[in-house]
Design a protein that fits this description.
This protein is α/β, with parallel strands linked by helices. It is built from 8 helices and 15 strands. Helix content is 23%, strand content 24%. The strands form 3 sheets. A 7-stranded mixed beta sheet has the order 5-2-1-6-7-8-9. Strands 10, 11, 12, 13, 14 and 15 form a 6-stranded antiparallel beta sheet that branches. Helix 1 runs parallel beside helix 6 (159-182).
Length: 350
Amino acid sequence: MKILFAGTPEIAVPSLKAAAEEFDVVGVLTAPDKVSGRGRSLTPSPVKAAAEELGLNVLQPERLGAEARSLTADLGADLLVVFAYGRIFGPKYLSLFPLGGINMHPSALPKYRGPSPITAVLLAGDAETALTVQRISREMDAGDIIRQTPFPLNGTETSASLTEAVAQAAAGELTAAIRDIEEGKAVDVPQEDAAAVYCRLVKKEDGIVDWTLPAVRIERMIRAYTPWPRAVTTHKGAPLALLEASPADFTDAAAGGVSGIAEIGSEPAAAGHSSRSETPGKPIGGEAPAGALLPGTVLGVDKSRGILIQTGEGILAVTRLQAAGRKPLDFRSFLNGIALDAGTILGEYR
């Protein structure tokens, strides 16, 4: 069986290599080279780079029109195998493949149909996602399912780490599906359209932190938008990226003040406050300013948990962050160079 593999980003490279090792990949369809870098030079997609290392024929049409169809037809491929190619295939193009086309989609379809399923599953806080191989249909991600394997999540994944894990796991799933088709064992299961959930392309402004959201949701944003567009707020008008954080359980915050807070490196607590936490797990130091519990208010620092920030529901403990023009730092190193006083209110970044 001859295969045309279509893909563009790094996530598809392990699947291309696995397919080429086991099957006859007669060509690789990928996006045209892009201009990038300070030198504005043309840069090939990761899939193109891998295909050339494997000695495979590469197609990079600007559009899937008559010329692209002619070049594809000359390859004589039986099956189109797609993983993150980035374009929609029309009926004329799909008709070139006697066995049709299949697509790897990293979600539990019909959940998270669309271009950003990895981000969507992290934002939702789901306990698991899935690796799904589906038939390519006219409606995006709505084709019959050939293979779907659950992929458990531990709640610490970022889009970067989950993409890397999915890239490795997807290779075996995709080749297993191809093998089933080749052997006539594939069973097509229609999706339940009524249960469909859709996701959209991520935009830069999606990373702007809305401090009125619960701490749990902001923490998901930080992970979902790593490495791009990153969760961003402002400190004194300058952008401040939040790189790592966790919800902190300080139940007295909503009751009108968090006691025992100090910035790292501060003097011992003011009179009337112990320089050590009276309750295990509490931060240490002086009080936050009265009435300063608006969402986005910096409450202070817990020396083990991080910089404490009031949200619309609960407290977020930020442990890694990056100021504009500076390197990413853990919160202790960050505070050695930038003052983040209790009572400061962080705001929007536009």
